[in-house]
């Protein structure tokens, strides 16, 4: 079986989709021996092993993303690759190219819903725009044989909106790369904080839906007994003395050391379709403080962390205090155990590989492949 992933959500500067696609191709090479190809935009036409690239212009202020303008070259390349299953990783022009190529090849097409486009649009541009985005998305995804979504909440919502061919496919984490054993006391020395100060960490893009302003206000309320390491490209500087900003790209090796050296992960985003960085923190042995929004409540159970009200700095600060009044180290160990049991990449990809096989056979039924809530 030859599976081809097609997406514009792939850059050299990291991101959750990139980590998922790299991990999937690596797992396939080690465990199945079958062919997994990635087709994504680049500066020029290029082939690097099983990664094919076609030229597309850069999107301004997008951290390296490129947006294809014409579909024909992408369709022709897919026809040349002749995969057995094609997966679209974004809901834009390339998704239509996937549908066109799949139809001409007579193979199934699946989409992976990595972001909740209607809610993101509604948050930025209002209800009317969100409704238009929802209509667009439903029209697009109804043409696919199956749509994968990473959380049960999103799966249920899409079904309620009239999209029956949805299957819940969680993402995962490299539990060797993100590991408590990478704890490094030099991180505290670099930050110039004492051992009794609770070190919190957040890593991700600087985007409105991450609610970084809420996180910073919570840090102001928490005061000197807590310190935040805020990691991500273009993160704004902070005047708070208990916040250190690393606004540069941080590779996974460096990030893994930062996570394992913290006391807890914090995440104020309320639009996450999954929350891959949360899993990476849990794999690093960290309890997590998140919010009751998006997919975070599916990951952050009472055994592994605390949940606060969305976009409420006082509630979030109190949740952080409450965490450290409990046995937070035991919660961190429980977080790691939860990852080991349910979210290692091999567990995730074995399930997805079975889904691809059923999809290729033409016997796919969403209710048969539904995952239990873990």
Secondary structure elements and pairings:
Blueprint: E1 2-6, H1 16-31, E2 35-42, E3 46-48, E4 51-55, H2 72-81, E5 85-88, H3 93-105, E6 109-112, H4 117-125, H5 127-141, E7 146-149, H6 152-160, E8 166-168, H7 186-191, E9 198-203, H8 212-222, E10 226-231, E11 243-246, H9 252-260, E12 264-266, H10 276-283, E13 288-291, H11 296-299, E14 305-308, H12 313-324, H13 328-342, H14 345-361
Parallel strand pairs: 1-2, 1-5, 2-4, 5-6, 6-7, 7-8, 9-10, 9-12, 10-11, 12-13, 13-14
Antiparallel strand pairs: 3-4
Largest sheet: 8 strands, mixed
- End-to-end separation in angstroms reads 29 Å
CATH class of the largest domain: Alpha Beta
- β-sheet strand percentage: 15-25%
CATH topology name of the largest domain: Rossmann fold
Q: Given the C-alpha coordinates, what overall shape results?
A: globular
Q: Over all CA atoms, what is the radius of gyration?
A: 21 Å
Encode the helix/strand succession as letters: EHEEEHEHEHHEHEHEHEEHEHEHEHHH
Total domain modules: 2
Helix content: 40-55%
Helical segment count: 14
CATH homologous group name of the largest domain: Glycogen Phosphorylase B
Average of the residue pLDDT scores: 92
Strands of the widest sheet, in order across it, are 3-4-2-1-5-6-7-8
Overview of the molecule:
The chain is an alpha/beta fold. It folds into two domains: 2-172 and 344-361, Rossmann fold (3-Layer(aba) Sandwich); 180-342, 3-Layer(aba) Sandwich (Rossmann fold), CATH 3.40.50. The chain contains 14 helices and 14 strands. It has helices at residues 16-31, 72-81, 93-105, 117-125, 127-141, 152-160, 186-191, 212-222, 252-260, 276-283, 296-299, 313-324, 328-342, 345-361, and strands spanning 2-6, 35-42, 46-48, 51-55, 85-88, 109-112, 146-149, 166-168, 198-203, 226-231, 243-246, 264-266, 288-291, 305-308. The strands form two sheets. Strands 3-4-2-1-5-6-7-8 form an eight-stranded mixed sheet, with helices on both faces. A hairpin with a 2-residue loop joins strand 3 (46-48) and strand 4. It is globular, with a radius of gyration of 21 Å.
């Amino acid at each position: 079986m030859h599976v081809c992933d097609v997406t514009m959500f792939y850059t050299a500067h990291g991101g959750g989709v990139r980590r998922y696609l790299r991990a999937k191709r690596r797992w396939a090479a080690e465990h199945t021996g079958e062919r997994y190809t990635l087709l994504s935009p680049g500066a020029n036409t290029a082939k690097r092993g099983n990664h094919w690239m076609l030229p597309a212009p850069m999107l301004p202020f997008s951290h390296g993303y490129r947006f294809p303008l014409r579909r024909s070259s992408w369709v022709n390349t897919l026809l040349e690759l002749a995969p057995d299953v094609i997966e679209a990783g974004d809901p834009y022009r390339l998704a239509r190219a996937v549908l066109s190529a799949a139809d001409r090849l007579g193979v199934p097409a699946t989409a992976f819903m990595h972001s909740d486009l209607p809610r993101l649009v509604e948050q930025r541009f209002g209800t009317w725009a969100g409704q238009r985005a929802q209509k667009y998305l439903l029209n697009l995804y109804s043409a696919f044989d199956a749509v994968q979504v990473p959380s049960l909440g999103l799966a249920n919502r899409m079904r309620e909106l009239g999209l029956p061919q949805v299957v819940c496919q969680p993402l995962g984490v490299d539990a060797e790369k993100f590991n408590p054993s990478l704890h490094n006391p030099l991180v505290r020395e670099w930050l110039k904080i004492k051992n009794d100060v609770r070190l919190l960490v957040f890593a991700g893009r600087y985007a409105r839906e991450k609610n970084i302003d809420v996180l910073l206000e919570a840090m102001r309320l928490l005061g000197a007994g807590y310190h935040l390491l805020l990691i991500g490209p273009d993160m704004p500087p902070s005047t708070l003395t208990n916040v250190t900003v690393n606004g540069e790209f941080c590779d996974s090796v460096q990030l893994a050391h930062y996570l394992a050296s913290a006391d807890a992960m914090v995440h104020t985003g309320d639009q996450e379709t999954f929350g891959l960085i949360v899993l990476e923190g849990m794999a690093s042995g960290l309890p997590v403080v998140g919010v009751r929004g998006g997919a975070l409540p599916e990951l952050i159970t009472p055994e592994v962390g605390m949940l606060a009200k969305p976009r409420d700095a006082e509630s979030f600060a109190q949740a952080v205090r409450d965490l450290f009044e409990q046995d937070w180290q035991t919660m961190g160990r429980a977080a790691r155990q939860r990852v080991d049991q349910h979210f290692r990449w091999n567990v995730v990809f074995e399930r997805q590989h079975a889904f691809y096989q059923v999809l290729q056979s033409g016997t796919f039924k969403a209710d048969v492949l539904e995952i239990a809530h873990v």
